[in-house]
Each structure stands twice: as structure tokens, then as C-alpha cells.
């Protein structure tokens, strides 16, 4: 196995069996399990839930301070802000979980083939990195981006809804 393929396997967390299933247009059971774990243990979900709990606690505290009409006027903007943020957090979590469920239930994998190009968002030291392939963008981490070789052709296997790179190989 070429050293670059071993590096890709390491940073994208896939095995030969996963790659074989992806070549046939489907996800392996191991990859489906990985997506299920993302539903529960995703840092984004945990942070969003903690934020919602914290804001709900603030909302209860604000509601308990209401004594008269002047207090309501002073606290109303805080209550509206708290409710708005809670709703947005709930929508974010719901949309993300829906996309993950759809990817898991269909078990399909999209394939893109071509030369990898890079795009950085907000400058060079940003957390957000993208690989561009076949006219589409896929978000990757800095380390995943560094595993690709410039001006080389790759086949990339992606979960269609989440646009999550499941596996890749050099062509």
C-alpha cells in the first residue's frame, strides 16, 4: 500500500472494507455506526444542547423576576432574545440530525473524481478548510486537507446529505 493511501486511511478513518463498499456506491456498516455516533456525541450537538439549557435557565430566572409592568418592559428584550436563540439552536440540531439520519437510512455514497484544489475560509490559519473537486466543495479538517497531494487525481466518496468525506483514494 502506498504511503499516501495509508495516510488517507488514517486521517479519514476508513478501512479496505469501507473503501470497497464505497466503490460500489454504498456505506459500510462501520461507516453507518460512525455517523450514528456523530448524532449523539457530536461536539456541535453537545454545545448546542448545553447552550439551550443555559439559556432556558436564564429565561426561567427572568420570568421569576417579573413583579410589575415596569419589570416586564425591562426584561422583555432578554426573554425574546433567549427564546429566539433556543429556537435557532433547536432548528440547527434538528436539521443536522435529519441529514445524518437520511445518510444512514439510504446508505448511499456519492463519488467525485478529479484533481483536488483547496480553498481556505477566513485566511490561512482558519479552522474551516475545503477541498474542491469536480465543481463541488467538501469541508475537511486541516489535517485531512494536508493528506492530499497537490495536482494529483483522487476519487472521493462522500455522504450525500452531510457532504462528509467517508473515504478517498488516489487514482
Number of helices: 6
The N- and C-terminal alpha carbons lie at a distance of 13 Å
Q: Rg from C-alpha positions?
A: 21 Å
Percent range for helical residues? 55-70%
Number of strands: 6
Strand content: 15-25%
Extract low-pLDDT stretches. Answer: none
- Spatial arrangement of strands, main beta sheet: 1-5-6
Counting helices, strands and paired strands, the structural category is alpha+beta
| Mean pLDDT, all residues | 82
Provide the succession of SSEs. HHHHHEEEEHEE
Can you put this structure into words, describing what you see?
By secondary structure, the protein is an alpha+beta fold. The chain is built from 6 helices and 6 strands, in the order αααααββββαββ. The chain has helices at 3-12, 16-23, 29-41, 43-64, 69-106, 142-146, and strands at 110-115, 117-120, 129-133, 136-140, 153-159, 164-170. Strand 3 (129-133) and strand 4 (136-140) form a beta hairpin. The longest helix is centred in the middle third of the chain and has 38 residues, at 69-106. The radius of gyration is 21 Å and the shape is elongated. The two termini are 13 Å apart. The model has no long low-confidence stretch (mean pLDDT 82).
Write the layout of secondary structure elements.
Blueprint: H1 3-12, H2 16-23, H3 29-41, H4 43-64, H5 69-106, E1 110-115, E2 117-120, E3 129-133, E4 136-140, H6 142-146, E5 153-159, E6 164-170
Antiparallel strand pairs: 1-5, 2-3, 3-4, 5-6
Give a brief description.
The protein is of the alpha+beta class and 171 residues long.
